[in-house]
């Protein structure tokens, strides 16, 4: 008796098995399907896409916020009372979450390209949900505690926008392979129209985005102003303990033209340098005066302050991860730093002919110098012997009286006012955070002969953007980094940018047209696209000894009659 048994031999498809297995735990051939994706799975695909976009923005935010990591850590310190680098766990979780979601997105696109049904495994659905909720909570938290930092995104786009546009254009152009395959494969006219409309809308939008990209670095290079001066914010706090004499000396070694400090007044009327309200973070007060570690720094007299060590904390906490780069001699100098007085700073600045700007904090109402704080500080300035033309005076209180007693001081405001108001008040300089002045406002201040200083500028890209915006000076915690920026990171003329933009659009358009034509030709004659069938046919053609594969094979078996 002869039995006819159809026999099919399939080539192992390890890549396809991994794609469907990792994404939806469909490792076996019979588990896979070419049917349309269910509405429930389409919803999860949209959730995955939204999570990816949100994480992309979140990741970009933290990447560009590197300029202000120290500011963020200080905010955390004010809330917790303990100093730690809070950016490390945030960056680690953000990078891990983004990598995971991006990997799932790639697998989903592979499913679409291969015509496989989307079926995200329930474990991945939990992972996507956790990533989404965690990111949403992070966004809300930052919005409530550090909302001003969101401005770093539009500011950074002035430096990265032209290049992000090229990257986005390359990604969308690459997606045309999948879109063209879907359009050529489907027999539903409505589906084809919707997919084409969405894709072409996105593509057209990207082609026109450069019309709305604005960057001060797109300018005629011949009109570039001189390099902005760099002021050492708290000296060089990445190389030495902030607000110490050695920190300011290190800043001067980095070719800074000015020094910036935070000033408080001791109980006996001596102005000294201290950023925090207490001495816990930057001194060894826990060992010297353990019962007074929570007291306001201004309630200590100068004699007590001189007993404190202001450098050992830097070696212990390593706030900028730079201690390992220091020599033994530098570590010895740092370990012996003490609290610095304003007079010591002014004498150092006078010796080096360097400008000094300080923020003066008024002591509490019960402080004996609560009413005399301006006079005490002005007296310290005069006793130091520093030329008044080197001192930028920022307090608004009793400014008219100060101008009479010390007319040579550079009157500086830390409040954003119009150029006309500044001129009316006799103020010639302005000190603002870098996000408080747009490019146009910076140029308006420059044209009005108002010397604008923006803080805190640590990253070369930000320094370059402000340089191209015609800012006159910046205050930086990283003068050693800005010292290595002799020219803007990038600078191109408007004609060069238009050439780059149009060329990229034309190349993208040509590639997209070519891909659609190729996919239409490739899919012609196929009623449905089955990657397994194609791979099977390829396997049959490759092996001559398998020439009878996919044909009926006669199987003879003897049967008792």
TrEMBL record:
SUPFAM superfamilies attached to this UniProt entry: PLC-like phosphodiesterases
A biological-process GO annotation: lipid metabolic process
Major place of residence: membrane
Residue ranges of every copy of the GP-PDE domain listed in the record: 228-486
Gene3D superfamilies given in the database record: Phosphatidylinositol (PI) phosphodiesterase (3.20.20.190)
GO cellular component, one term: plasma membrane
Matches recorded under InterPro entries: GP_PDE_dom, PLC-like_Pdiesterase_TIM-brl
Its membrane topology: Multi-pass membrane protein
Record keywords, A-Z: Glycoprotein, Hydrolase, Membrane, Transmembrane, Transmembrane helix
One of the record's GO molecular function terms: glycerophosphodiester phosphodiesterase activity
PANTHER family for this protein: GLYCEROPHOSPHODIESTER PHOSPHODIESTERASE DOMAIN-CONTAINING PROTEIN 5, GLYCEROPHOSPHORYL DIESTER PHOSPHODIESTERASE
Family: Belongs to the glycerophosphoryl diester phosphodiesterase family.
Name of this chain's protein: Glycerophosphodiester phosphodiesterase domain-containing protein 5
Organism from which the protein derives: Scomber scombrus (Atlantic mackerel)
């Amino acid at each position: 008796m002869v039995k006819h048994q159809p026999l099919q031999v399939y080539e192992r498809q390890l890549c396809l098995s991994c794609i469907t297995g990792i994404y939806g735990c469909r490792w076996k051939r019979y588990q896979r399907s070419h049917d349309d994706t269910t509405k429930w799975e389409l919803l999860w695909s949209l959730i995955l896409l939204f999570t990816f976009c949100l994480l992309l923005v979140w990741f970009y935010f933290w990447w560009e916020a590197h300029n202000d990591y120290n500011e963020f850590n200080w905010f955390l310190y004010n809330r917790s009372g303990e100093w730690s680098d809070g950016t490390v766990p945030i960056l680690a979780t953000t990078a891990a979450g983004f990598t995971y979601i991006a990997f799932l997105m790639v697998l989903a696109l592979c499913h679409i390209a291969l015509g496989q049904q989307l079926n995200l495994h329930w474990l991945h659905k939990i992972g996507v949900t956790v990533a989404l909720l965690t990111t949403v909570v992070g966004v809300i938290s930052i919005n409530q505690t550090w909302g001003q930092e969101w401005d770093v995104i539009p500011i950074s786009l002035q430096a990265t926008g032209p290049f992000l546009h090229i990257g986005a254009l390359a990604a969308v152009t690459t997606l045309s392979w999948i879109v063209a395959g879907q359009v050529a494969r489907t027999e539903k006219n409505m589906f084809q129209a919707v997919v084409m409309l969405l894709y072409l809308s996105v593509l057209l939008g990207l082609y026109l985005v450069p019309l709305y990209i604005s960057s001060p670095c797109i300018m005629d290079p011949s009109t570039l102003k001189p390099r902005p001066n760099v002021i050492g914010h708290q000296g060089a706090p990445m190389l030495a303990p902030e607000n110490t004499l050695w920190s300011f000396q290190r800043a001067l070694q980095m070719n800074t033209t000015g020094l910036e400090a935070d000033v408080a007044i001791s109980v006996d009327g001596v102005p000294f340098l201290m950023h925090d309200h207490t001495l816990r973070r930057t001194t060894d007060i826990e060992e010297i005066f353990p019962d007074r570690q929570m007291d306001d720094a201004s309630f200590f007299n100068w004699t007590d302050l001189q007993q404190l060590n202001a450098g050992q904390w830097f070696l212990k906490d390593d706030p900028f991860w730079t201690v390992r780069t220091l020599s033994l001699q530098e570590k010895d100098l740092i370990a012996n730093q003490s609290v610095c007085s304003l007079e010591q700073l002014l004498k150092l600045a006078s010796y080096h002919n360097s400008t000094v700007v300080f923020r003066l904090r008024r002591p509490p109402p019960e402080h004996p110098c609560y009413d005399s704080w301006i006079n005490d500080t002005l007296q310290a300035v005069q006793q130091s012997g520093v030329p008044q033309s080197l001192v930028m005076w920022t307090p608004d209180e009793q400014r008219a009286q100060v101008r009479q007693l010390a007319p040579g001081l550079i009157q500086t405001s830390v409040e954003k006012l119009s150029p006309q108001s500044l001129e009316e008040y006799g103020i010639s300089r302005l000190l603002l955070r870098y996000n408080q002045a747009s490019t146009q406002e910076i140029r308006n201040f420059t044209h009005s002969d108002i010397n604008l200083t923006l803080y805190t500028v640590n990253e070369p890209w930000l320094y370059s953007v402000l340089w191209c915006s015609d800012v006159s000076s910046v205050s930086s915690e990283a003068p050693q980094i800005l010292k290595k920026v002799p020219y803007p990171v990038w600078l191109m003329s408007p004609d060069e940018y238009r050439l780059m933009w149009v060329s990229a659009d034309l190349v993208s358009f040509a590639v997209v047209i070519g891909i659609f034509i190729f996919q239409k030709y490739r899919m012609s004659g196929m009623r449905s696209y089955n990657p397994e069938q194609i791979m099977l046919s390829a396997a049959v053609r490759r092996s001559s000894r398998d020439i009878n594969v996919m044909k009926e094979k006669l199987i003879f078996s003897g049967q008792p009659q």
